[in-house]
From TrEMBL, chain A:
<dbReference type="GO" id="GO:0005096">
    <property type="term" value="F:GTPase activator activity"/>
</dbReference>
<feature type="domain" description="Rab-GAP TBC">
    <location>
        <begin position="358"/>
        <end position="568"/>
    </location>
</feature>
<dbReference type="InterPro" id="IPR000195">
    <property type="entry name" value="Rab-GAP-TBC_dom"/>
</dbReference>
<keyword id="KW-0597">Phosphoprotein</keyword>
<dbReference type="InterPro" id="IPR035969">
    <property type="entry name" value="Rab-GAP_TBC_sf"/>
</dbReference>
<dbReference type="Pfam" id="PF12068">
    <property type="entry name" value="PH_RBD"/>
</dbReference>
<comment type="subunit">
    <text>Interacts with non-phosphorylated form of RAB8A; phosphorylation of RAB8A at 'Thr-72' disrupts this interaction. Interacts with ARMC12.</text>
</comment>
<dbReference type="Pfam" id="PF00566">
    <property type="entry name" value="RabGAP-TBC"/>
</dbReference>
<keyword id="KW-0963">Cytoplasm</keyword>
UniProtKB/TrEMBL annotation, chain B:
<keyword id="KW-0653">Protein transport</keyword>
<protein>
    <submittedName>
        <fullName>Ras-related protein Rab7</fullName>
    </submittedName>
</protein>
<comment type="similarity">
    <text>Belongs to the small GTPase superfamily. Rab family.</text>
</comment>
<keyword id="KW-0636">Prenylation</keyword>
<keyword id="KW-0547">Nucleotide-binding</keyword>
<dbReference type="GO" id="GO:0003924">
    <property type="term" value="F:GTPase activity"/>
</dbReference>
<dbReference type="Pfam" id="PF00071">
    <property type="entry name" value="Ras"/>
</dbReference>
<keyword id="KW-0813">Transport</keyword>
<keyword id="KW-0472">Membrane</keyword>
């Protein structure tokens, strides 16, 4: 896929050549080959500086470390530097509350990138996920990688564009988001470039140029009128070699290693920085030796380093078990929540009780009307009786609207015919194996149809959409009464209606929030989804659209729904359920390196295999753990949050009651 | 990834709600039919290992009712979710119900929708297969789309192979999917896969006379 914004792209344009020419002006001749490290005492130039570039050492939001990213130039060599603002953004208190593994100030020093010469960098992997912060991963020649650097304020293009003014940066032919770095102006790099390193490959557009050397022709202006010898010839030689090797398996392997590394933020960070610190301190003494080795053996070596401590073992702390499920609320206990006139004075206590224990089947009928919002908690018995009678006649009126459409009318009413047809098609395949809807000519199936068709007249704009019959079916089973089921369904659709919006806004906002939550609560999984191009979360579509209706057997769907409808810990508890399920299978997902299609099938096949009590309990733990940071991931107005004006809309004559 | 890609054949199954997409897929994979299939929400996905010339392939079959509802304006919900699912499709199967004229009329919409969403590199030659399902219903007395009409449409769209099927009775399902697999293979780029001129698949002799068959 091509990027929309190409003007900063790293193409071999004339600006590039000019900038390169200019940049190479000083120091080409004065360089001494053995020089390597950055010398604070020597003159340098800051060619790039960016604030709010952060490292996420762990999945804990409190451990995000922001800092300043700089590129400095000294004696024509470029150096990368990232220094944290130690005291500002490290929310130590928060982190301490959350986890024992909070990053100590001294550990933060591990993450410092201390004037890393660009010649030590093999490539820069760029990630611009649609739903998250953009970041880069710096991969060293050794195949090791630094942890992702998140550009909170954006600007990765600008960063790369700046680099290309000073370095040879080319897009990988295999991955448009991989930029291979060659600091050909760095004297050490120049000498290394004559070695047969599997590094740069021309990008796809460069390779459309006839001759492979032509792709690198922007080096030519440097030589004009200047006595340059091994530098350019080395470069073009190198280019020729690399054009031939553009599908070098070693390169692919090292990318895989990179991907592995980026899965394990904390671990990779510690490993790479400690190793690299050593190397840094020795001014990259081992560099020549390593680069002289066969590159695939390097990769194997770094791969091995991962083995003793598998990255996925780091998530032990991520299992959050909530409180054990209590016994369900029964009618007797329910009675204690009502005052003498029938008001539920402490609705929070009731919702909490249901959240932790659910409801006995025979008490559901009464409680669901409150949970769904058909009854108001502070209404009296008398008011509810009155509401029932008003709503009964209102329902009859709505129903008669479509019932009165004559056959002659139907023939001339395509929209009605199609809508009715869809509903008819769906009700006969909704929960037919469940006894309540079983068998031919089942009257309940007919009533599902009537309620849905009436709803499509009540809310003509939304109409009927597949999935609605799934949402209605358990409600009708519990409520039994046609009219009350209708109004309960109406109340539910006030919240879930946006799931069926034509512009998909309701689903997209939930998928977006889900993505943010996974990023917060399971960073490695989020990173994996990023690499696997799975950040759209469409594989969770069914979960969200119909509230896990297809994932559990009927009785467990009811158990789950009443927990969700309490909105006790969160209005968006269903998203925490999503995260919990994903987390439970993260190891399989990541180690099997599932691609999008595989993931769709895998998630679909989880249906019927999820333990509802266990998942609710863990999601509760996760939700508590995430706290306000979790809530902050969910933009206001994300379904099933009620739009602010709904209560008055649903009870227009509330004052009269 | 390249080596894995070779082993997978991805087939997208499209068609109006209730024409029997899930049933066809289940009949082919599990040799079973049920009256109790639920309406597909999201995407349904089944795979089957198939063998062609001693080589094993995984046929991935994906039903995408994201594009569920065509209203009179030709708009439908969940439309743009499709793109991610269409990626890498090797063949597209269009299903209609021979007893519902509208489902046949919509074939054109489904085909165009596929071409827009999947944007295959060579849309003119991208392999489609059309299935007219539910030929068993009422002994064929309720059918409203004739075989001739369906074949004419298929011919007009670049000779799309056409099969008349009954997922319920298992009629022609195997033959149809063999053709689908063959066509999916044909879509694989030359350098990725060696394909002999003729592919003799087990059971192809069962191809019934009521279909125009697979002309690959």
């Amino acid at each position: 896929m091509q990027d929309a914004d190409e003007q900063h792209d790293l193409s071999d344009d004339s600006d590039y050549a000019a900038a390169k020419h200019q940049g190479s002006g000083m120091g080409v001749l004065s360089e001494s080959v053995e020089a390597g490290g950055f010398d604070e005492n020597d003159a340098f130039e800051v060619v790039y500086s960016k604030e709010n570039v952060a490292i996420h050492p762990s999945q804990h939001i409190g451990e995000r470390i922001s800092g300043q990213l700089r590129v400095r130039k000294q004696r024509s060599s470029l150096f990368l530097r990232w220094v944290p603002y130690i005291h500002i953004h490290h929310e130590a208190d928060y982190a301490r509350n959350l986890s024992k593994s909070s990053t100590l100030a001294k550990d933060i020093q591990l993450y410092v990138i201390n004037d890393l010469p660009f010649r030590c960098i093999r490539c820069i992997h760029r990630y611009i996920p649609p739903l998250a912060w953009q970041y880069i991963i710096i991969v060293l020649s050794s195949g090791l990688a630094y942890p992702p650097l998140y550009f909170y304020n954006g600007g990765i293009r600008e960063f790369l564009a700046t680099l290309k003014q000073h370095l040879l940066v080319v897009r990988s032919a295999d991955n448009v988001n991989v930029f291979l770095v060659n600091d050909l102006q760095d004297p050490l790099q120049r000498s290394l470039s004559s070695l047969d390193l599997p590094r740069a490959v021309p990008n796809s557009r460069a390779s459309s140029v006839k001759s492979p050397t032509a792709a690198f022709a922007f080096d030519e202006p440097q030589t004009s009128g200047r006595a340059k010898t091994n530098g350019t010839s080395g470069a073009s030689e190198f280019a020729e070699q690399q054009a031939v090797k553009s599908h070098d398996p070693a390169f692919e392997i090292s990318l895989q290693v990179l991907e592995k590394f980026s899965l394990i933020t904390k671990f990779a960070c510690e490993t790479t920085s400690s190793i690299f610190h050593e190397r840094q301190n020795q001014n990259c003494p081992s560099f020549e030796k390593i680069s002289g080795e066969n590159s695939s053996s390097k990769v194997l070596k770094s791969d091995k380093m991962l083995e003793p401590s598998h990255p996925l073992q780091f998530d032990n702390s991520l299992i959050h078990i909530g409180e054990p499920r209590q016994h369900p609320l029964d009618s007797r206990e329910l009675a204690t929540f009502f005052d003498s006139e029938g008001r539920v004075n402490d609705s929070l206590a009731l919702r909490k009780r249901i959240f932790y224990g659910g409801i006995e089947p025979n008490a559901r009928k009464e409680v669901w009307k409150f949970l769904l919002g058909y009854y108001l908690y502070d209404s009296t018995y008398a008011e509810r009786e009155y509401l029932d009678s008003v709503k009964k006649s209102e329902y009859d009126c709505l129903k008669s609207q479509w019932q009165s459409i004559s056959t002659a009318q139907v023939r001339r009413f395509t929209k009605f015919r199609e809508r009715k047809g869809l509903i008819e098609k769906d009700v006969v395949r909704t929960d037919r194996s469940f006894s309540f809807y079983e068998g031919d000519e089942n009257p309940h199936v007919k009533l599902l149809h009537d309620i849905l068709l009436t709803y499509s007249f009540y809310n003509f704009d939304l109409g009927y959409c597949q999935g609605m019959s799934d949402l209605l079916s358990p409600i009708f089973f519990v409520i039994e009464d046609e009219c009350e089921s209708f109004w309960c369904f109406v109340a539910l659709m006030e919240r879930l209606g946006p799931n069926f919006n034509r512009d998909q806004s309701g689903m997209h906002s939930q998928l977006f929030a889900l993505s943010k939550l996974v990023e917060l609560l399971d960073r490695p999984l989020h990173d994996y989804f990023g690499q696997a191009d799975c950040l759209n979360y469409y594989y969770c579509f069914r979960w969200i659209l119909i509230q896990f209706k297809r994932e559990f057997e009927f009785k467990n769907v009811m158990r789950l729904w009443e927990v969700l409808w309490t909105h006790y810990l969160s209005e968006h508890f269903h998203l925490y359920i999503c995260v919990t399920i994903l987390k439970k299978h993260r190891r399989t997902i990541i180690t099997e390196r599932m691609d999008f299609d595989t993931l769709v099938k895998f998630i679909n096949d989880l249906s019927g295999k999820i333990d509802v009590d266990e998942i609710v309990r863990e999601a509760e733990g996760l939700c508590l753990y995430a706290g306000e940071k979790g809530a902050a991931c969910i933009p206001p107005g994300t379904p099933p949050s009620l739009p602010s004006d709904i209560a008055s809309d649903f009870y227009p004559d509330n004052g009269d009651l | 990834m390249a080596s894995r890609r070779r082993m997978l054949l991805k087939v997208i199954i499209l068609g109006d709600s209730g024409v029997g997409k899930t049933s066809l897929m289940n009949q082919y994979v599990n040799k079973k039919f049920s009256n109790q299939y639920k309406a597909t929400i999201g995407a349904d996905f089944l795979t089957k290992e198939i063998q062609v010339e001693d080589r094993l392939f995984t046929l991935q079959m994906l039903i995408l009712p994201f594009l569920q509802i065509w209203d009179t304006a030709g708009q439908e919900r969940f439309q743009s979710l499709g793109v991610a699912f269409y990626r890498g499709a090797d063949c597209c199967v269009l299903v209609y119900d021979v007893n519902v004229v509208k489902s046949f009329d919509n074939l054109n919409n489904w085909r165009e929708e596929f071409l827009i969403q999947a944007s295959p590199s060579d849309p003119e030659n991208f392999p489609f297969v059309v299935l007219g399902n539910k030929i068993d219903v009422d002994g064929g007395n309720s059918r409203v789309v004739s075989e001739k009409k369906a074949k004419a449409w298929c011919a007009s769209k670049g000779n799309i192979p056409y099969f008349e099927t009954s997922a319920k009775e298992g009629i022609n399902v195997e033959a149809a999917f063999e053709c689908i697999a063959k066509n999916a293979l044909k879509n694989e780029p030359e350098e990725e896969i060696y394909l002999p001129d003729t592919v003799d698949m087990a059971g192809s002799s069962r191809l019934q006379s009521s279909s125009s068959g697979c002309e690959c």
